[in-house]
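User: Predict structure, ligand magnesium ion.
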Amino acid sequence: MSELLRAQELTKVFRSNTALNALNLTVNSSEIVCLLGANGAGKTTTINLFLGFLEPTSGSALVGGVEVSEDLQGARSNLGYVPEQVSLYPSLTGLENLDYFVRLSSNKQPDETYLRDLLKQVGLEQGAVDKKVDGYSKGMRQKVGLAIALAKGAKALLLDEPLSGLDPKAANEFCQLLRNLANDGTAVLMATHDLFRAKEIADRIGIMKAGVLVEELRPETLDQAALEQIYLRHMHDDAPVEEAH
Ligand SMILES: Nc1ncnc2c1ncn2[C@@H]1O[C@H](COP(=O)(O)OP(=O)(O)O)[C@@H](O)[C@H]1O
Ligand SMILES: [Mg+2]
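Assistant: Predicted complex:
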């Protein structure tokens, strides 16, 4: 099991605000790690540091052993990213959007069959592939976003609240897809507010509070109610909750 993502004492300070405080976290191949935490906890900052959108104040972010701040392109070549709002061209079809973004990122003309296979792999309804994205639901746009991320053969996926606004069926499908990708070896780091899905798909769950990873859990050791209780305690208390489980 190879390590694809590693945060080492990763810290980001914005003026006087410590958005991320000495994060130590790894995500291995075939693993799904979910980050939970209130708004402002540092989840997006963590993802942005891995992507090299931000420079760490101290510590390091590594992708496949490559330090992001030393070799941005090398690190990014292994990363796929799905933001909360996938930006697509509404007047192009799903297939045309995928084609456009793949050409943009690889400078290659992708084979149409390959692109259609990718859209099939992410579960986009066959009838939607050649329809304008204008009429797509959020779940369908997220699937195209995932296909774009997969097209480059990313070994690690970073997802920032990809489930927000998805209905339960779409969220379930999206998570099933992530599980399949992980089973094929992809490392997945996902920020989410969805405790239920996190419990369902994560191999490990990290709870973040005010820039600190306050707890790491293996969800198979807990039921849904216990996970929620631990989460809520962290949100209310300043004290550690080791005795709670
Ligand atoms: N570009 C920025 N400039 C200044 N402060 C920021 C910036 N990005 C995030 N922050 C601050 O960092 C903290 C963590 O934010 P963020 O990582 O977005 O949290 P989350 O994604 O968990 O909601 C917050 O206090 C937020 O206001
Ligand atoms: Mg965020």
